[in-house]
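Revision sheet: structure tokens.
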Amino acid sequence: MLDTESKMLTVGTFNIRGWSEEQHDGINAWRNRAALTITTIKGMAADCLGLQEFSGNKNLQFYTDNLDGHELHLGTCMDDGRFNPIVYNSRNLRIQGSSAIWLNQNDEPKPDWGAQETRSATLVNFEYRPTHCVSDGNILFVNTHLDHRSELAQIEGTKKILQRVERYPYPTVVVGDQNTNVGHTSVAYDLFLQAGFQEAFINANSTMEEDLPPTFHHFKGENYSPPSNHGTRHIDWIMYRGFTPQACDIVYEYQLQPPHYPSDHYPKVANLRVDLE
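Predicted:
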């Protein structure tokens, strides 16, 4: 929750794998996990939360009915009715403007740069309530999901996102399933660093930088071991600029309600302090 005295904002990211059915995930189909995802989201208590793999056809009514005090900004529709929506606390934040970016060199809703799927980013300019929390009362929150096959698509998509956020002179958070390991072996990650962004989990847990725990776990939880050629699988990021991280955690609570996990990804949540100078 936003604290007007400490000027804190809680943000998060959560790939819910909301499109999945029994033929894809068996007992882990979304309908069997739906209630557990809601429990997880409520437990995170984020002011802004980016969801990935959200199906407008399968998920929209359920989340609209069950978010309790939070609103859902869908963004733009991609392949198969999927979205990168933003869940936000409407008691603390008000949408001042929103837009979407097609991660395509011609700004078209189709795959590019070798991507397997159409990719996009959802941007929302939020005003704080009350506005005196920051000097101009605004933050920019971006939610995306980079391609899982093409490194070139990850790189070029990141460049497009960074070009767009430069239009906004506000403290900025970019979250999402980036499908590339956070750290210095990722070109996309390096691009964020060059643009002045930092990753909340790394900065709040600096002793773990060389041995980051996975955020993807393939519905195996603590029994998951990333393949040696896939790095740490710490692929869900919270990048920020204009904030100072106070804490950032992988959300392990609510993660097992036998035989289900909320998703094949662990969510991440961060408490960020607004920098006024």
